[in-house]
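Example record used in the benchmark description.
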Amino acid sequence: MKNIHEETLSELREITEIGFRHLRRHTRTRTPIIPIVTYSPQEIKALREKLKFSQSFFGEFMGVSLKTIQAWKAGTNKPNGTALRMFQVLDKDPHALNKYIFIEA
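Model output (C-alpha cells):
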C-alpha cells in the first residue's frame, strides 16, 4: 500500500509527463507567420489614400496622434510592428474594415 507521499509523488510525475508531452507537441510544430513588411512614407500615404482616410482620421483609427502620422509621412518616425501588421492587413484587404466594427456608421 502506498503512503500519501508516494501517492503524491506519483501524481506529480504523471502531471509533469503530461505537461512535457503537451510542450513537445507545441514546440515541434510551428505555424508559419508571414514576416512583417516595412512601409516607406510614400507607401503609408498611398495606403491612407487608398482607404480614403484623412491624416487625422487615420491617426484616430490607428490609435496614434496626428503628429505621429505626420512623422511617419516625413520619415522622422517609423511605425512599430503592430502598426505595420495592420498596414499589411489593410493593404491586402481594404474591406477588412467592413468585416469588423471599427468605424461607427
